[in-house]
Amino acid sequence: MKIVVLDGRALNPGDLSWQGFEEYGEVVVYDRTSYTDKQEIIERIGNAEAILTNKTPIDEAVLAAVPQLKYIGVVATGYNVVDTEAARKRGIPVTNIPAYGTDAVAQSTFALLLEIANQVGLHNQSVHQGEWQKSIDFTYWKSPLMELRGKTLGLIGFGEIAQAVAKIAHAFNMNVIYWNHRPKESQAEWLRQVSLEELYQQADIISLHVPQTSETEKMINQDAIQQMKDGVILLNTARGGLLDEEAVAKALDEEKIYAAGVDVVSKEPMTEDNPLLKAKNCFITPHIAWAPLETRTRLMGIAVDNFAAFLAGKEKNVVNKRG
């Protein structure tokens, strides 16, 4: 069986191996494939019966041009790059990788929050530029510093990642509240479920942990921001489209939002005209919450298991099941 990896570099820039897939057939790996050139996508799939994609889109037109295709493996949790219904109609299972990066994304969420609270990068740079050596005082700080104890963290969404973030927040002696689109009770007495409106009103820090859907797209907009506390901190390690970036940038510049920490933006790679780039006190990382070696190793292992289960006639992590 021929297996084509359309955009392998994100998962494996050279520190992992495709050996797990090579045990099942010929593997052709492309580091990158155009997101917009459908002809290139079709040509690269060629006569392959199985493909792996991360962000390369597989739509109806592509599927129609490769009738021999039997399997699509998305090497990520989100699978909106694939027209899953069109694949289902053709009998092609689409698999994804659920819950592989829970701890890494929770860690990254707090890395952004701690950078905002403690400004480690700013002060490290200051010391290396000689400012401490020239200081007449034994200490100085170049921006306000913040203690997290007693602050209220509001989690929008309460899946596995949000629950991991909640545990870290509890260890920092923070108050934790959450909203989920379907009520989801927690057994922990230190966690409190609230309405979305209550969360906006009560949280000192808001962290997003919901998928991007038609219902959640731009949910953090001008109306939502106006309901929030003055000086709120906003964190987004979920999907960039959850934010109305113009509204968030405006709120940052007006200091309605004290700071934002984002690992994702609405269009990736980030464009030069993204309003968050010039907004005050906005901390941005290039979609790396999922990227530790340990996390990607786990992802690769699940991707191989998904494919092996498909070959054995046992569905595993299929997102477009029949019926």
Task: Please describe what this structure looks like.
The protein is of the alpha/beta class. The protein has 2 domains: 2-100 and 293-311, Rossmann fold, CATH 3.40.50; 102-284, 3-Layer(aba) Sandwich (Rossmann fold). It contains 12 helices and 12 strands. The chain has a 7-stranded parallel sheet with strand order 8-7-6-9-10-11-12, with helices on both faces. Strands 2-1-3-4-5 form a 5-stranded parallel sheet. Helix 5 packs across helix 8 (160-171). The longest helix is centred in the C-terminal third of the chain and has 19 residues, at 293-311. It is globular, with a radius of gyration of 22 Å. The mean pLDDT is 97. Keywords: NAD, Oxidoreductase. InterPro entries: D-iso_2-hydroxyacid_DH_PdxB, D-isomer_2_OHA_DH_cat_dom, D-isomer_DH_CS, D-isomer_DH_NAD-bd, NAD(P)-bd_dom_sf. Residues 20-320 form the D-isomer specific 2-hydroxyacid dehydrogenase catalytic domain. This is D-2-hydroxyacid dehydrogenase. Residues 110-289 form the D-isomer specific 2-hydroxyacid dehydrogenase NAD-binding domain.
